[in-house]
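About this split. The held-out portion is used to measure sequence recovery: a designer receives only the structure tokens and must propose an amino acid at every position. Recovery is the fraction of positions where the proposal matches the reference. Here is one held-out target exactly as it appears in the evaluation file.
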């Protein structure tokens, strides 16, 4: 798993800016040509690449007994650098759900810039990312905690692939995500549209900079779902 120093890079100018009260924006400068994904007043000179802080050594051992949700629950997640995985582990601990990690058939580059380039290219092309294997016993799963990092203001293409491949009718979907600064960027609404026939519950989104401390929010959030 890649590990990064918490330093800002300037080789490629990019900013993941502010969800919550602020508008979201991604601005890329490629080969001197800037492209604004969502128009904002920030100029390329004001932007910088932010590499992810990565939560390390998040143990799920020694926690409380798992509660066990009603019906069969499963945490399905993708994580490139570990932050969403740390959330998944806490949700497993809180819920007693089974867990399944989406692993790309073709791994994403470990280099941050190369990964962002590849992710943007496949998002623009609309190419879905194949993953290894599949969940066991999908038909009997009632509640799916679906986790992902925000990638280019959207779901990663591997998450979209998983959604497209499965029948969501009658399932309860609870999204969770990790992001740098842009927040959900509408991904629960995207899931509501694409997980046909599912009931969506209120998810949890954590900024990477608030990890690992914010993982403690997961227990209260999970309890609030009353599953
Ligand atoms: C390809 C790529 C695209 C990203 N796009 C965004 C974005 O649009 N908004 C944002 O806030 N963070 C963005 N990030 C930062 C990740 O969402 C953040 O680092 C997250 O915590 C990573 O989770 P993970 O460790 O589970 O992969 C991006 C990171 C990568 C690698």
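Reference sequence for scoring:
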């Amino acid at each position: 798993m890649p590990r990064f120093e918490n330093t800002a890079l300037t080789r490629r100018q990019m900013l993941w800016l502010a969800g919550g009260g602020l508008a979201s924006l991604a601005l890329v400068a490629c080969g001197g040509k800037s492209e604004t994904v969502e128009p904002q007043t920030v100029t390329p000179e004001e932007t910088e690449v932010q590499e992810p802080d990565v939560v390390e050594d998040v143990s799920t051992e020694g926690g409380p007994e798992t509660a066990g949700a009603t019906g069969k629950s499963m945490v399905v997640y993708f994580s490139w650098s570990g932050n969403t995985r740390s959330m998944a582990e806490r949700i497993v601990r809180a819920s007693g759900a089974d867990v399944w990690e989406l692993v790309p058939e073709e791994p994403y580059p470990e280099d941050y810039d190369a990964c962002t380039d590849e992710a943007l290219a496949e998002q623009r092309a609309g190419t879905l990312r194949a993953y290894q294997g599949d969940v066991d016993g999908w038909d009997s799963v009632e509640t799916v905690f679906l986790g992902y990092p925000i990638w280019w203001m959207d779901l990663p293409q591997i998450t979209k692939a998983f959604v497209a491949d499965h029948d969501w009718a009658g399932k309860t979907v609870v999204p969770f995500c990790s992001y740098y600064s842009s927040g959900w960027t509408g991904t629960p609404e995207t899931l509501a549209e694409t997980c046909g026939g599912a009931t969506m519950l209120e998810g949890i989104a954590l900024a990477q900079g608030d990890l690992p401390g914010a993982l403690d929010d997961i227990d209260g959030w999970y309890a609030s779902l009353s599953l």
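Annotator remark: The first helix runs from residue 83 to 95.
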